[in-house]
């Protein structure tokens, strides 16, 4: 019964977070901002206000595929947010520029996350293979190695949280100080940013739960010997 509850949680939590962010985005993408600035203009205004003239703003395909690329110094906004005049578009654009500001200011957690990328990528690809083989062969060494690789991927997920929350805080500061939104629009803007943050919280929570499950499995193997 416990396993059924556990697997239900790891399915329900991410779905709930995704529904939350999609619901908030859909709702506030229909609400025009008072400034009527499209997302691309919001991003450019914040970048210029912070002296980030070398960072470009580009349109990209997909839905909610917005991101900041530190390698090319580019803020990429999905078409709806690039052209959109809504509160949601302004919030998303400002959030991605928040990452560009972090990059400019050498934000410690962002640097740490970048350093973890190759290790986390290797860990996420190898961990499940090692863990499954370790379980099938009842090999404690393989299971432990898989857990170590998984821990690296989980650490990346956990470090992502302060990076995302900090970018959202920077976004709120910028859209308020630059007059992109009015005081009565702050609540709606925060709802969009908080809903997006929930997806990262959910992903980190699930990753930690999975790691703990395999750690307990490893401890159980040791006790059986």
UniProtKB/TrEMBL annotation:
One of its GO terms (biological process) is proteolysis. GO terms for molecular function: peptidase activity. The chain crosses the membrane at residues 6-25, 115-137, 143-163, 192-219. The keyword Amino-acid biosynthesis does not apply. Keywords: Hydrolase, Membrane, Protease, Transmembrane, Transmembrane helix. InterPro entries: Zn_peptidase_2 (IPR007395). This is Zinc metallopeptidase.
């Amino acid at each position: 019964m416990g396993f059924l509850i556990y697997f239900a949680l790891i399915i329900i939590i991410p779905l709930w977070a995704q529904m939350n962010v999609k619901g908030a985005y859909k709702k506030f993408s229909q609400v025009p901002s008072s400034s009527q600035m499209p997302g691309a203009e919001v991003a450019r205004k914040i970048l210029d206000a912070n002296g980030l003239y070398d960072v470009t703003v580009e349109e990209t395909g997909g839905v909610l595929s917005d991101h900041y690329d530190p390698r090319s110094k580019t803020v990429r906004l999905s078409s709806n947010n690039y052209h959109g005049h809504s509160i949601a578009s302004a919030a998303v654009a400002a959030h991605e520029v928040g990452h560009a500001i972090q990059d400019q200011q050498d934000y410690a957690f962002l640097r740490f996350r970048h350093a973890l990328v190759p290790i986390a990528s290797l860990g996420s690809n190898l961990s499940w293979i090692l863990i499954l083989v370790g379980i099938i062969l009842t090999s404690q060494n393989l299971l432990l190695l898989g857990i170590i690789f998984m821990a690296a991927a989980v650490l990346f997920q956990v470090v992502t949280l302060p990076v995302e929350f900090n970018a959202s805080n920077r976004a709120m500061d910028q859209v308020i100080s630059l007059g992109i939104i009015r005081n009565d629009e702050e609540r709606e803007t925060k709802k969009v940013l908080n809903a997006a943050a929930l997806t990262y919280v959910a992903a980190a929570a699930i990753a930690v739960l999975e790691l703990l499950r395999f750690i307990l499995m490893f401890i159980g193997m040791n006790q059986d010997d």
